[in-house]
Amino acid sequence: MDLKALRPISYGLYIIGSRKGDRINGQIANTVVQVCSEPPTISVAINKGNLTHEFIEDSKVFTVSVLCQDAPLSLIGKFGFKSGRDSDKFDGVNYKLGETKAPIVLEHAVAYMEAKVINQVDVGTHTIFIGELVDAEVLTEDEPMTYAHYHQVKRGTTPKTAPSYIEEKLAQKEGDIGMAKYKCSVCGYVYDPEKGDPESDIAPGTPFEELPEDWVCPVCGAPKSDFEKQ
Ligand code: FE
Predict the structure, then answer these.
(1) Residue 127 Cα, ligand 1 centroid: separation in angstroms?
(2) Ligand 1 centre and the CA of 219: distance in Å?
């Protein structure tokens, strides 16, 4: 079986919000699907180990913020590579509480949906929550982010808890004797000196060694010391 056959499946990129009492949390997911239109119903697969899973199981509500194509890696990293158990992910983020009192991210989002869980399916490491919409709004006409754009253009990475995670071997070009690439040991992001880090104003051609000491991983915020030479 060649698991690379799964790679051409298309996905978007979303922030899933939920609550437990007054506590709120959110996480990145790429597995939101509309499953029927009457009544409008969506599903999302969430890792059982995630705090958001615990919150959805408790409150039976979740929100979906559809990220736009220019959503910064820092926002994706905040919701995708950090746990709400360690930090308030919504601190400093433009959001509101919806009708379900679950949080909806409003920045870098083209639309949002709120759903109440009507069914759920146990799929081993994940639960598929199926939710009937209680509210939905279009926020902007911007291009939505696709999972392919996130990987190819933004060079984002996939946490091991994601349902679509496949062990990725870094593509090292034959005969590539240019400046060394460095990989974040926390999230897997690779700093490629040929490309720099446009979101932190690091020009293409900047070797890793010459990055400012306070430069951090654009995905997860880890310091330079957490990077390993490729
Ligand atoms: Fe990182």
Answers:
(1) 26
(2) 5
